[in-house]
Every structure is written in structure tokens, then in C-alpha cells.
Amino acid sequence: MSRTQTRREKLAEKEEAILQAATKAFLLGGLKAARMAEIAKAAQVAEGTLYLYYRNKEALFEAVVARHWDDLRRGAQKVVRAETDPVLQLETLASYTLDRIMGDRKLFELTLYLAHAGEGLTAATDRLGYVRVFDGVIERGRSEGVFTASANPKLLRDLFFGTLDYAARSALARGEDAASSRIIETLMTAMLAVLQPRAEDRDPGVEERLERAVARLEAVAERYPAG
Amino acid sequence: MSRTQTRREKLAEKEEAILQAATKAFLLGGLKAARMAEIAKAAQVAEGTLYLYYRNKEALFEAVVARHWDDLRRGAQKVVRAETDPVLQLETLASYTLDRIMGDRKLFELTLYLAHAGEGLTAATDRLGYVRVFDGVIERGRSEGVFTASANPKLLRDLFFGTLDYAARSALARGEDAASSRIIETLMTAMLAVLQPRAEDRDPGVEERLERAVARLEAVAERYPAG
Amino acid sequence: MSRTQTRREKLAEKEEAILQAATKAFLLGGLKAARMAEIAKAAQVAEGTLYLYYRNKEALFEAVVARHWDDLRRGAQKVVRAETDPVLQLETLASYTLDRIMGDRKLFELTLYLAHAGEGLTAATDRLGYVRVFDGVIERGRSEGVFTASANPKLLRDLFFGTLDYAARSALARGEDAASSRIIETLMTAMLAVLQPRAEDRDPGVEERLERAVARLEAVAERYPAG
Amino acid sequence: MSRTQTRREKLAEKEEAILQAATKAFLLGGLKAARMAEIAKAAQVAEGTLYLYYRNKEALFEAVVARHWDDLRRGAQKVVRAETDPVLQLETLASYTLDRIMGDRKLFELTLYLAHAGEGLTAATDRLGYVRVFDGVIERGRSEGVFTASANPKLLRDLFFGTLDYAARSALARGEDAASSRIIETLMTAMLAVLQPRAEDRDPGVEERLERAVARLEAVAERYPAG
DNA sequence: TATGAATGAGTGTTCATTCAT
DNA sequence: CATGAATGAACACTCATTCAT
């Protein structure tokens, strides 16, 4: 059995080596520029061996991207669990997401690339796990009554991930490192405007009392006809 | 002179034909998949002729993308000018942007592709004109006192374009046509939360006076029995 | 008539401009690398105009090479005529030839190139005029009794031009500027060995005195019997 | 081990086939005219395979030329070793060289072509081995006292190879097969004029008679002791 | 004569993938 | 499972030459 285990371990190790070599290669120049021959050499396996683990170059590419998103998801879960307040969780998640996008921008671009070039929609699937972390935060906020139940989760995602993606991309395009704190602040203001509509000014008292007072006066007024 | 004009017109026509053929070709499968030979054939010119107008395939590609953004910019300016209220301008621009992204999504992807694959930063430049339309709306809103002057334009762009881009992309990824109205609504809520912070509760005088008026009303109303 | 002359002059000027531009272009990178478009631009004519003067690129190339050899021939005739002694004429011609080969090595290579690549043997024809200068020197030397009549002119050419060509080429290959004087000296020694067999031993003095001395020794020796 | 050997043999065979096919192709029309596709087909390998053995077309070309010079060198060494007298070695080498140039003139032209077109100086390197055979003959002649030590080897090479190259080229240009014996004779006369200065004026008669006279006088002298 | 825009044939090289060993 | 030599399809770009003006 130890032999079987050893064999399995060897396989796992080899797969890991391939994945790492491939990640490095794809990061350097994208799907097209990476050479299977170089990946094989870096992983210290023969070219043919790559095809024992992955059907083709694209499959290897997808595996790399998938693994990346899995890493991200785990990291996101970790930082989210460190907080209890949904609002803080949201803010923490935003910071984490922005940092990761900025740090591994190449891999995010690869995801876009995959979505663009690929016939498969695997990219969407990959992000799914990550998006669920976000959805979880929203859900918890709702069940705790901190967030309004009326906001559509899909739209919230658009706001959240769209803004962060775009902010990261334009920052990178301008060569800036990050102005993370400010964008996070702005994003939170925007998010909370949707998640907690008029939450703080909603002291319903004034309105209700006004309604009631007017209603009563109207009743009186009817009793005393004008004139 | 009519001869000169004719020549120029011929050149312009030929360039237009090339550009159209190229747009079609690039839209079909991106930069890589498009074949110069096919573009030439579709434009009814010889392959060599393409190179009289554009240095190489990539230059032709960039020209296609640039023209697309120019079209967009013009369209955006038009819809914005049709409104006078900055808030409505913003909303109109959002709708227009979303529609165009959804409609020409391939060309948006090509822009991303360009940003990803290209060594040139042309992509950013192309968008610039379009972004300026947005900036113009914000600026007008500020100068009219409708928007707060404190919001950073860059961050606003991130919110605006990021959300729209992402919404379009994810809608397309899910195969949906569009849920435009709802995302626009959400986006506007978010934007205004940043652009008009506590706009309605602002000027506490109103609230206080309202409070006082209600109190007096209540006092009066209580003097007259409910029945 | 002055108008006709003007026209002719214009044509001649244009042809000259083309030839000069072409020479420069071919010198830079040979037949293949030169671009008709660049030649046209340098000559300040349209591309099509080149073809009014020369059937095609190769014909232009040949014209350039031919003109070069004509220049050389004229120069050779000049230096040869400056001397009267055939031996000195030979030496002068050798120096001149070597200098020109070294100086315009590119054009010599082009001649070789023409011989190699071209289907026409034009190259040989071009050199003909130059070779005739050499033949003339030899002929004069013979008729003056300075050179032996028995040497085959063709073989002499092989010796003369072959050595000079090769010397120049190998010097250039080694990046040396020239060791001209020594090669000229050696070549002359070799040439004269063929053209003036036993030429230098013709200092009869030494031989005669030696002959006389031996004769006297023999006379003495004979007086004393061998045994 | 026999398997390994088999593999190596296969590789060697394949390389040989490529080299032969390439030689044939390059001989037909030079570097430019030869088509990699045709070479591959002739060698019965795929086009890509050519690039497993040679970096590119030019490298293949150089390999062909290099092999040619290696062949020549071996042949030259053989004929030289068949003689012992340096003068005869020189003459034999001249004949061999002339024959080979005439026979494989295309490959010689290719060498020139390489020198002309190539950025690399490989051509010179290739000839080096061959030239050394010549240098060896000269050196031996010197150490045996047959050749004068004063002649510069470089100049001798110019004379030897230059004359032979040129003779072959002009003979080929004139369509003649060869007038080898006469040119060899002339060349040897010229070479020896440089290598054995005053060789022929050594009219052995005088020397011999001097020797004899002195010998006889010595004999007489012994009979008549001094005093 | 002169122009110069248009032509379009022609080819070296790469690299993902396979398969005999 | 592993190897790595062999495959071969695929394609942008150049540039001498032409011809309508």
C-alpha cells in the first residue's frame, strides 16, 4: 500500500510541477505565447507527458486559471470569517479582492482572455466559487437585517466586482500602484446606498406623525365646514 | 480639380471598404483568427493594398477598434446633449453605454484583448474620448451644484464604467439579453449616493422646521377629538 | 533645337541620377537588398520611370556594374599611359587594380554576384575592357622585346588578376586595410618569372667571372692526373 | 545498446539525407532559389524536421558548404601525402585544386556567395582547413631547405589560390573545360620564382665543375704534402 | 514621358500534438 | 506511465512590375 501511495504521491507531485510551470509560463505572456515545450522542460517532464495529464494546451490553461480562483476563494473566505459585521465583511472582501487583482493582474487578464478566446465558458464557472463568498456576505447581512432584502444579488455583484475590476485595471493601465483606500471607501458608500436605502435618515416618526396629525385635522375640518 | 477629388474619394472609399471588411473579420474571431487574405478579398483589394493603408495586421486592428470608440463617443455626446439635467444625462449615458456594450460586445472584448495582448497602450487612448463625455457630465453637474465637488472623477468612472462593463459581461455570459433598467436604477442609486451625499436630508433646517410644524399640528389636532 | 537639346539633357541628367542612386543602393546591400522604390526616391523620379530607362531591376544592376568597369578601365588606361616601361606599366597597373578592388570591393563582389546569380554572362563582358588594358601592356612589352613572346596571355591574366583579386578579398576578409606593396612585389616577381625567364640572373658579370675561374681551375687540375 | 546505436544511426542517416538533398538543391540555384519544402521532400522528412537539425535555411546552407570544404581538405591531404618532394606536392595540390574547382564550381560560387551575402565569416573558416594543407606543403619545403624561408605564406596563398580560382572561373566563363596542364605549369614557374629565387640560374654545370676541379686539386694536394 | 497606386505570387518558420518505443 | 523525435498545416508580409491616368 505504501507503494501505491508513493505512486499516487509521485503523480500528484508531477501534476503540481506541471501546474506550477504552466502558471509561470502563462503568466509571462498569456495563452498563445507560452510554449508547451518550455513548460515541459520547466516541469522536468517530457512534452508528451503533459498530454497524459491534460488533454491539450487549453485544458492546461484552464486548470491553471481554475486553481488560481480556488486560491482566491479560500483567501476570501478566510478574511471574511475574520469579521462578524456584514458591513465590515464587505469592506474587507473589497480590499482583499482589489489587492489580489492588482497583485495577480496577469491571471485576471488571463481569465478575461479565456472568456474571450475560449469557446468554453469555463471562466464563469471558475469565478463562481469566489462570487459565492460575496453572495454569502450579502445573505448573512440580510438575514441579520443589516441589509435590505430587496436588492438583487446579481446587481450587487455587478457593482462590487465591476467597480473593483475596473478600478484595478485602470490603475494598472496608468501604472499606479493603488489608491485602494479611496476606491474602497467610495465603493462602500455606493454599496450601502443600495443595501441600506435611507437607512440612517429613516426615522419614520416624523412622517407618520405628520400623516396622523393631518388626518385628524382633516377630520376636524370636515366637521367645521368652511365659512 | 474634380479629378483630384475623385482620387481622394476613391482612396477614402477603399479605406472604408478595408475598415469594414476588417471589422467584420475581427469581430468574428478576434485578432488572431482573422486572415489578412480574407479581409483583402472582402474589401475587394489585393493583399498588398492593405499594407498601403495599414502598416500591419495589428495596425489595422487598432484602427478598427479606434473607429469603434469614436463612433461610441459621438453617440454618447448626442444622447447626453439631448438632456439638460446632469442626473438625467448620467442616466441616459448609462443606458446608452450598456446598450452599446451589449450590442457590440465583441468590439469591447477586442479592446480588452488589445489591452492584454498589445504592447501598445492604444486601447486606453481609444477609450479616452469616451470617458471624457462622462467626465463632462460630472463636471457640468458640479458646476451647477447638482453634484458634490468632493467626489474623485477617477473613482466615479470606476463605479460607472466598471459596473456597466461587468453587468454587460455577466449578462452576456449568462446568455441574457439585458436587464438594463434594473441595473441602471441600481447604478444611479449608487452613483448619487456618492455624488449627492445625504442630499435630501441635507439642510437640517427643513427637518427641524418640519418637526416643529408637526408638533404644533399635533398640539392643535389633539384639541379636537378624533371622532 | 535648343529645346531638343534641353530635352536630351534632361533625359541624360535623369538617367545619371538614376544610375547614381542605383549604385549607392546596390553598393549597400547587393542586388537583392536594394529596393526599386528607394532608388526611385533617391533619384527623385517615380517608380514607374525607372522602367522607362531600364527593362527591370537586373538590367539596372548590370548598367551600374558596367559603368563601374568602364570607370576602372579609363583609370587604368590613364595610369598605364603615365609610364613607358612595360615592367613599370605592369607594376603600376597592379597597384591601381589592387587599390580599386580594395576601395570598391562591394562592386567587385557585385560582379561576382552577377556572374553567380545572373543567367547572362554580362559580367565577363564588362571586365573585358579592363582586361584589354592589361593585354595591351603585355603586348607592348612583347613588341619591345621586354617580355617573352611565348607566354600565353590568358594564363598571364589568371596570374595577374587572380592574385590581385584573391589578395584583396583575403585582406578584406581579415579586415586588413592593405599590405599592397608586398603583394605587388611578390606578384611582379612571379609575373616576370614567366614573362622574362632567367631575367634577373642576367647579371652576366658574376657568372662569367665564376666561369672563368672554374676554367682556370680545371686547366690547373688537369695538369695533375686524377689518380 | 544495439537500440541506442540504432537510434543514433537513424539520426545520422536522416542528417545525411538532409545534407545530400540540401546540397543538390543549393547547387541548383544557390541559397535563395532553394526551397526548404523541396529539400524536406527530397530528404523524405517533414519540413519541421529540417529545423530539428539546422536552426534555419542559412545554417543548413553553411553546413553544406562546410562539408564540401571538409571533403576537399581530405582529398588534398591524400594527394599531398602521395608525394614526398615539396615541389611535386605543390604541383599535385595545384592540379587537384583546379580539378575540384572546375568540377564543383557551383559549390565554390556558393562559398563566394556566403562570403558576400552572409553576415557570418563562416566562409573563411571553412576554407581554413584547406588552406592549411597548402601551408603545410610550404612549411615542409622550407624545413627541408627546398623553399626559401623569406616568402610570406599569405602572399603565396594569394598567388596559388588566386591564380587557380581565377583560371577556373575564366575557363568556366568561356565554357572551356580546362587547360589545366598549361596553367599549372605557369603557376609553378611563378611560384618557384618566389619560393626558389635564383633557382634556375643555378646552372648546375658551373657548380659541378667547380666541385670536381676542387676535388681533383685536393687529391693532388694530398700527394704533395705541404712543405 | 511621367506618375504612383495597385497588384499578388511566393515561402521560411513555428509549435501543438502524436505515437513508436 | 513516460519519452521526445517527428510531423505538417498555417500565414503575414514584401516588392518588382504594371497600367490607367
CATH topology of the largest domain in chain A: Tetracycline Repressor, domain 2
Give the averaged pLDDT of chain A, no decimals. Answer: 83
The fraction of residues in strands of chain A falls at under 5%
Task: Measure the end-to-end span of chain A.
Answer: 104 Å
How many distinct folded domains of chain A? 2
Quaternary status of these chains?
A: homotetramer
CATH architecture of the largest domain in chain A: Orthogonal Bundle
CATH homologous superfamily title of the largest domain in chain A: Tetracycline Repressor, domain 2
The biggest beta sheet of chain A, please?
none
Outline of chain A, from the CA principal axes?
elongated
Secondary structure blueprint with pairings:
The structure is a homotetramer of 227-residue chains.
Chain A: H1 2-33, H2 36-42, H3 47-53, H4 57-81, H5 86-103, H6 105-117, H7 122-143, H8 153-173, H9 180-195, H10 205-223
Chain B binds a DNA duplex (21 and 21 nucleotides) through residues 3, 7, 10-11, 14, 35-37, 40, 45-52, 56-57.
